[in-house]
Write a structure and sequence with these properties.
Helices cover 40% and strands 15% of the residues. It contains 7 helices and 5 strands; from the N terminus they run βααβαβαβαβαα. The longest helix has 17 residues.
């Protein structure tokens, strides 16, 4: 499946909190959007992987995603090593996105920081033809990072106006009742 925009975030609900408004806006404009999460969020203090999977599916419908996947990597233990880069690169190749949205390179949660680096590196590796040639090489045109928290000395280079999509974004966030009720 080929998509225009692929958002990758460490945990289910991270995309909803950071860039779901952008994905909703893009879908309204006719772009195909998708999300994948490396982990199931099993280390979170609230909710269980099964209930969070159902919440993620409900949020995917609200966001009008073309696809949503989970890679099943260990929560609170994401690493950026060759094996994990290969897993993420193969997923990027399958989706063939033009644009990838990744977490901010800085942040308080280690999984978010490592995922940002992992996504950047996997996007590069996905374009190397000799790495796992059983899946056609593909490198996204752009990798952009979305901010999750106010960080000192970090200013966005652009902002997407989601005024018209804001209520739908909140609806997607509210799908995670295990986290936000």
């Amino acid at each position: 499946m080929s998509v225009d925009i692929l958002a990758i975030a460490a945990h289910r609900d991270d995309v909803e909190l950071t860039c779901s408004g952008t994905l909703i806006k893009a879908a309204k404009q006719g772009h195909k959007t998708a999300v994948f999460n490396p982990t199931a969020g099993e280390m979170g203090r609230k909710g269980a992987p099964k209930s969070r999977a159902a919440e993620a599916e409900a949020a995917a419908k609200v966001m009008k995603l073309s696809a949503r996947e989970n890679l099943g990597l260990p929560d609170a233990a994401i690493v950026n090593d060759p094996a994990t880069r290969e897993i993420v690169a193969r997923t990027i190749r399958r989706f063939q996105p033009r644009v990838v949205i990744a977490p901010a390179p800085k942040g308080r949660h280690p999984d978010h920081r490592v995922t940002a680096e992992l996504v950047r590196d996997a996007c590069f590796v996905a374009g190397l033809r000799k790495v796992r040639p059983d899946v056609a090489a593909h490198r996204p045109r752009k990798v952009i990072h979305c901010l999750a928290y106010r960080e000192d000395n970090v200013k966005p280079t652009f902002v997407v106006d989601i005024t018209d999509e804001f209520e739908q974004k909140l609806e997607a966030v509210k799908c995670y009742s295990s986290q936000f009720d």
